[in-house]
Amino acid sequence: MTSPKGEKMKARLLNQFSVSTQLKELLDIINNRFDDSDTVLEDLLFKRWIDTAEGVWLDALGVLIGIPRPFGEFEDIFEYKAIGDPDDPDHSFGTVGGGTGGRYTTLNGLPNSTPATDDVYRVYLKAKSAATEAGPTIPEIWAFINSAFGIDATLAVNTVGNIEVTIPTALTGVERRLLVNLAPVAAGVSITIMNWP
């Protein structure tokens, strides 16, 4: 099957050459090579961007950035049932499943044996990439948050050594940890996310 470009090439042949089946076959072979080259160039263009890369292409970018694909995480670890005061988690016990009430999660989640999805992994890569481009100033920390997570956060310094971040949209537990751990802050300065929208 000839592509539209191949048909265009054959249509431009002079009359004395347009009847030659061998010449048309040669043009088809040449055109197929062009199509293959176009596909390779398209792959190099779109599959080498963090925003559009998938699968092993994303893994290759992770090698360049220095972050291997992490394992997936369970966000919710266990449920709790309240004993006595339903609003006080200190008066509760954990259940493996089927319980009612709130949920506890560990700080880093519980890893499972399945590698993280492309969407989760992409967040790691974008955060690490944005962190390398920013310095430890408030405007640059804001630029890091905006670039890595696509949100317009509000930053405040109400106590010495702590930058308080208020986010307008929800972030996953993974994204929140990346924001706190990769933010380009100076030594001795910490990041605190003030809300959980």
Question: What does this molecule look like?
Answer:
With 197 residues, this protein is of the alpha+beta class. It has 3 domains: 4-46; 71-115, no CATH class; 118-193, no CATH class. It is 44% helix and 18% strand. It is built from 7 helices and 8 strands; from the N terminus they run ααααβββββααββαβ. A 3-stranded antiparallel sheet has the order 3-2-4, with no helix packed on it. Strands 6-7-8 form a 3-stranded mixed sheet. A two-stranded antiparallel sheet has the order 1-5. Strand 7, helix 7 (173-182) and strand 8 (190-193) form a beta-alpha-beta unit. Helix 5 runs parallel beside helix 7. The radius of gyration is 27 Å and the shape is elongated.
Query: Pairing-aware structural class of the strands and helices?
Result: alpha+beta
Net shape: elongated
Q: Please write the string of helix (H) and strand (E) elements.
A: HHHHEEEEEHHEEHE
The mean pLDDT is: 78
**Largest beta-sheet details:** 3 strands, antiparallel
Strand order of the largest sheet: 3-2-4
Report how far the terminal alpha carbons are from each other: 54 Å
- Output the number of helix runs: 7
> How helical, in percent, are the residues?
40-55%
